[in-house]
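Deliverable D5.2: sample structural annotation.
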Amino acid sequence: MVKTLKQAVDVRWDSKYDMLLSIYDNYAQLREMALEDETIYNSMRGIKLNLLEEMLHLLKPFKFLRENLCKELSPSIHLIIPIKQKLLTHCIVNENDSEVIKELKLRFCENIQCDYHITVLHKCATFLVPALKDNEELLCSDDVDEIFEELLNLGNFCVKEMIVEITEIDSIH
């Protein structure tokens, strides 16, 4: 085989993408091997190349965007809202999608909406990135009002903390 076949691991969803990609990359060779081996033939019978391609197309942005969020050497909190928006846009059902992909996209959208809990901290982080702050798909005017209120509260808190520290320093001297 040109490339090795990857095996999925339950705790890492990326491994399922990698497994599907390895099947796709080796599809022609696997079909040839299936002609000589009944076990491989039986395993390959249910694999439709066009559905495999559609699945890979659907899952690829999830892998790429998750990797962007998981970089250890750079902050990523400002990416949460843009990534959520990209995934929701990617999962819009198209008339050309197969029924399986349509169903998956609907489920993915539901899960993204339920599992991505956007807080004011995410909004503040997004707003503080100049390239993102004016994007109305990411932050609406109500979000901006909430952000300003949060930043004012944070500023007031910091000022109060500084006054406490100065007072404590003065009382020592």
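Annotation notes: The chain has a mean pLDDT of 87. The chain has nine helices and no strands.
The annotation will be released with the project's public dataset once the embargo ends.
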